[in-house]
Design brief:
heterodimer; A: 165 residues; mainly alpha; Arc Repressor Mutant, subunit A; 3-stranded antiparallel beta sheet; globular; B: 103 residues; Non-ribosomal Peptide Synthetase Peptidyl Carrier Protein, Chain A; 5 helices
Chain lengths: 165, 103
């Protein structure tokens, strides 16, 4: 591998590891230390506004409704999520974030915003477009590889493998 | 700028549209906002004025800022994205933003 490719490969791996580590550290030392990263991603999938059905949320996370139910039970117990029955169809259960859940969501979004701002701010408009395009291509390629290795199974996001979910 | 007078006009009474967005006059919004800030920061209400610089003059940490944002969103049934938060500096700016969002 050429030196420049070696540097690039190392940086890429460091980014993966360090973003996850930093998110974990920020959580454990912050206001929401009782949340795991996977639980935070579940809150993100539910979103801060309209209530979602379990199926919608499970699809966003790429997990089964059964797995999500276990995660939601825990988040309800910790008072980050609440369940409501649909007023028109009582068979449908909707989930939404509590005030505490919305706060965790907003604080976590801020982490991402600050990171992106720090990276993007020094760049020109053209450089931003180019960087976004290149990172998008890396994302697509990695996703394709994942699909290939998962033997045609439905594409699951990495959160599936986290035992906390 | 002098503090806005307490809401006395019936046209300032809260109105809720079909999307659940509550619309109030600016004076009522100011009153609600000061109530929230006073409770959040444990400061007397007379310490606030429309000209108060939120990020410069108030001891508001990032969690308290989001508590305020989440409470305002839920009270008025509106959405306040981070981009909108970045554009405000005074209490009056927040009142204007909420009034604009409720229309």
């Amino acid at each position: 591998m050429a030196p420049i490719e070696q540097d690039f490969a190392e940086s890429l791996l460091h980014i993966f590891d360090n973003v996850l580590l930093t998110e974990g550290m920020a959580l454990s030392k912050g206001y929401f230390s009782d949340l795991s990263i996977a639980e935070l991603h579940t809150l993100n999938a539910i979103g801060p506004y309209e209530a979602r059905t379990m199926t919608e949320t499970a699809n966003i996370l790429g997990i089964t409704v059964g797995t999500l139910t276990v995660a939601i039970d825990r988040l309800v117990k910790k008072k980050y999520v609440e369940r409501q029955r649909d007023t028109k169809d009582r068979r449908i259960v909707r989930i939404s974030l509590t005030r505490q859940g919305k706060l965790a969501y907003r604080m976590h979004s801020k982490f991402h915003r600050v990171l992106v701002k720090r990276i993007m701010d020094p760049l020109s408009e053209d450089e931003r477009k180019l960087l976004t395009k290149m990172v998008g291509e890396i994302d697509n390629y990695v996703e394709e590889q994942y699909k290939k290795y998962s033997n045609g199974e439905q594409y699951k996001r990495i959160v599936r493998d986290d035992t906390e979910v | 700028m002098a503090p806005l007078k307490k809401n006395q006009s019936s046209e300032n009474a809260p109105k809720e549209n079909a999307e659940g967005v509550v619309s109030e006059g600016k004076e009522a919004i100011y009153g609600t906002l000061v109530d929230m800030l006073s409770g959040l920061l444990d400061m007397p209400k007379d310490k606030f004025s429309p000209d108060t610089e939120i990020f410069e003059e108030l001891p508001l940490d990032s969690l308290q800022l989001y508590e305020l944002v989440v409470d305002l969103e839920s009270h008025y049934g509106i959405r306040i994205p981070d981009e909108a938060i970045e554009k405000v500096s005074t209490i009056q700016d927040v009142v204007d933003m909420i009034e604009g969002a409720g229309k």
